[in-house]
# Entry
Amino acid sequence: MKESPSTIPELIEEGLNLYESGTPVIFTKRGGEWIETEIDSLRNKIRQFAMGLYALGVRPGDTVSIHSENSTEWIICDQAVLSIGAANVPIYTTQPADQIRYILGNSGSKVHIVSNDQMFADTKPMIKEVESIRSIITLSDSRHKKLKTFEKVLEMGRKQIEGAPDLFDELRSDVRPDDLATLIYTSGTTGMPKGVMLSHNNIASNVKASLERVPFTMEEIRGADVLTYLPLSHVFERLISYMYLVMGARIHYVEDVDEIREDFLHVRPFFFATVPRLLEKIQTGVKVKGQEFSGLKKKLYYWALYRAEKYDPENPSGGILDRSLQKIADLLVYSNIRELFGGNLRGMISGGASLSPSVFRFINALGVYCGQGYGLTETSPVIAVQDRNHMRVGSSGLPLSNVEVKIAEDNEILTRGPNVMLGYYQQPEMTEEVMTGDDWLKTGDVGKIDKDGYLYITDRKKSMFKLSTGKYVAPQNIENQLVNSGYIEQAVVIGYQRKFCSALIVPNYDNVKKRLMRDGYRPSKPYGEDERVRKLIREEVDKTKKKLSPWETVKKFVLLEAALSVEEGELTPTHKVKRSVVNEKFSKEIESMYDEEKENKGPNQHE
# Structure
């Protein structure tokens, strides 16, 4: 591989050279079947689709939007767009209609790509309102005559190549490192999304620096099977997929995250990228599973889990006794848990949100490398990441070799490097707000750097609040403590300008019911009003007191019946809580926890 590939097509092309002719590169699960695409077909389709787009009028500097689930076709569209000097605009499949309309209009997309007729039907009214769109392409067969199918565009591309066989290579060679590669609209936790402008070099430089932290040799991962379930519309999974292609791995895109357990067993992946929520669910499931055992088996099971939660990846060896006990725990328990991942898993990387120390220790104790990274869409995305030689509990590792990090006077994390965005599209004032005069980006996160250079993230700057007592609270830390319980699914901590912290809690009702029914009690609906359910959750909430300051402890809580979701607008596509939305939607529930506080203030006092 060349030392400094600086455009994405150049970077990916050098990776594709690692695959021998005829070997499969990408597998996409559709209708329960895994459809493979081999290297020669992938290369040809990228070239043909690129020329098909050119035939439709797409030129360097234009934008093309992609509204689709993960698939081989997504990667083909992505590389085709970039190879002719255009920029792509990825859209989440869960994006609300008003945001899709805004993204299409704001980006000026010339061609819009949808995955199927249903997705087109759901967005058709808003697409009509966007004047810039000249053509709509579907990645599936279609009953709509105005839609051009993926195969039709490939056919157009083949004809274009016949007339101008060198055009694709000429266009690709004209792409410059500082050219706009993608407009990624961050959903944000408030307001309409912002279009983050990332250049080819922003992303390519981040791929190269991130490769330095891969916990395996290139030889180990070349030809290995990797599983991916996070959306390619998010820059984290997109970067990971680029890295897989550069390393010569075989990518498997799942169809439905609800089937991921079966997919693990089928693919038997070597590596995968994840967000903390999946790992939290796995840890919770493993904990609850132990309740099915009895006697000595149950004691040994929970002894092993207790050991796992005390494991220190920075000092894994320990003494002779520790090593012996670790081997016993592995033989009796950990090896069985690894089988849930297919039995071949060597590692994973977690991003998108903070990974709790408990989950971090637990996964690494199983004998599976679990690293944590930190970054933003605005930083392409990686700022810091752990590797095998730099595993420190609670940290996000060390900054990448080409990235600088410092802490501002108010403890906000600032960063600078070739991965920092070009700016927010058509929003110069907003860009100026987050950039300093000497090119440092204000991340909006609060954190610290220890004496060895490890970066720690405390919370989002905007998420932190001050109680009426004057004490500052970082809610994310408290929420992480709460969801470590096997009986709490989600938690949102409240307390801005209040005397104490409270929480909206979504219990893991399946686990709660199992626990109570083992005690001979069947909870009654609505579960949130059942006193035995509330008592169990109160016990779990109280367990967090030992790890929190007195003012951080949750004094009161309300149980919600339904989980917060992306579809209801309560979470971003990366499952971050939209606190303003939650505060407004559940204002009555929140006020009920402070009714007594209000009464004590008197008639002339306000929140």
Residues 598-607 have pLDDT under 50 and may be disordered.
